[in-house]
Design goal:
Helix content is 55%, strand content 16%. The chain has 187 residues and is α+β, with helices and mostly antiparallel strands. It is elongated and about 105 Å long.
């Protein structure tokens, strides 16, 4: 008859039987031919690539949306301040009208004073406070020295007079106060 080595199909069958004995659970993954396994892996890879592209697109959309929201937040952050300042501007215009309509302009100074107080409150409500200067030690971080003046009213290197008020927003200086600094002696 024929020699078993003359029939390669018998060897393959024997190899499949060996696989079956190594995998008694009958897992189909091990029973597929090489071409079937390659096709399965190619399909899984294509699906994974689709998922990765979807996730990348979702992440890009999220970044664009977050950037747009941050820009809008920054752009409109001053809205409450503007709203309060507009009230003060309205009151200032009313004070001007009252001063123009009154023959002696009596009420104009009082009206302007009220508006100045309203503006100061508005700024303070938003964390902007005036820097205390007169009588305080000179601090180059808070004060801009315009002139040194003699006098014994204040110790040396203390602010003797304020020419323009300085302001601080929370802990950051918006504008230093322009001041005159005492030399501590009479001229």
């Amino acid at each position: 008859m024929s020699n078993p080595s003359d029939h390669p199909a018998d060897e393959f069958t024997t190899g499949a039987d060996d696989l079956q004995s190594q995998n008694p659970g009958g897992d189909e993954k091990y029973m597929k031919s090489d071409d079937e396994r390659v096709n399965t892996l190619v399909a899984e890879l294509a699906e994974a690539e689709k998922k990765a592209l979807r996730y990348q697109a979702d992440l890009d959309n999220y970044r664009r949306r977050a950037r747009r929201e941050a820009e809008d937040t920054a752009r409109f952050a001053v809205m409450p301040l503007i709203s309060e300042l507009l009230d003060a501007v309205d009151n200032l215009n009313r004070a001007i009208e009252a001063g123009l309509s009154s023959p002696d302009g009596s009420g104009l100074a009082e009206g302007v004073k009220m508006v100045a107080e309203q503006l100061a409150r508005t700024l303070e409500n938003h964390g902007c406070k005036q820097i205390e200067s007169v009588g305080q030690p000179f601090d180059p971080n808070l004060h801009q020295a315009v002139q040194m003046i003699p006098g014994t009213e204040f110790p040396p290197n203390h602010v003797a007079a304020e020419l323009r008020a300085g302001f601080r927003l929370h802990d950051r200086v918006v504008r230093p106060a322009q001041v005159m600094v005492s030399t501590g002696s009479k001229g």
